[in-house]
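Hi R.,

Here's the chain you asked about this morning:
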Amino acid sequence: MRISKGETTKSTKGYIMRKSVLFLGVVGVAVALSGVKVYAESASDIEGQGYNTPAVYNNSDAVGYDANNYPVITAILSAPGSVGGKNYTAWVFTAQDQTGSMVTYVAKSALAGLGTPYGPTDTTPTVGDGIAVSGAYQLYHSLPELEPYGSTNYVQLTSQGNSTASFAPTVLSINALNTAALASNVSGYYIELAGVTFSGGGTLSTVFPLETQGNGNYTLTDGTGSIADYDWTSSYSTAAALGGQAVPTGPVNVYGFVSVYPSTGLAGGGLPEFTVTSIVPEPSAFMLAGMGLLGLLAIRRRRS
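And here is the predicted structure, written out as tokens:
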């Protein structure tokens, strides 16, 4: 069962067990007996339906739809395996079509035993894979998720090696994420924030925590403002993989996703938070490093 952040106060940040979605195993039976519609649509259509609505994410009503026009995986947020002393048991990934982006959360054991498997032998979701997902539409801290569990649900591999150029990470400023309303509009997307600096972290201010040390709390700042960075090691292996690494001391580019920490006491119903899953130096840092290397080579030539 997935561990989530506490949903009491911002200061406590306790953890609670996420509620199990018990009805998923009987979705197919309910549909067969009651005639409930299972939506087979694009991301924007599914997000317009009610919470816990059975859905099939296959982009079937998108403009220009054809057999090869399925949603494409744009980022792996978590993968099964041991990272930093914790055993992660689920795949979590973003998949985007022309209308939006959604998150799929599926246990490794469920992926292998779903009604329509990911592939005959391949159960490893990969960036660039075209997919179709059947499950229940959930909202988890504003993240639009499809969660397939029962034998009537599936995560189906439709193609491999698709170009993600048209689905590149959405580059945003922090100011664009600084309200719950705006953050909700881009929840589910893989996002890049450029030229940000880290601060805060308390006792973890210099080194990112391992999962055994708990989730970290930092602040990301760029030229437009600041946003909370929740280092969500308890749920995402890519966040945990940062554990033990030095917290950057200068501007970097970060990749990840935005969620909304729920609070009835805040305007819009919550506090936007960014979760970093990958960090790369700014291009200028690469250039400076390259210039330094060229300078060393020039000095060596003169000395030789």
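One quick note: The longest helix spans residues 283-303.

Cheers,
M.
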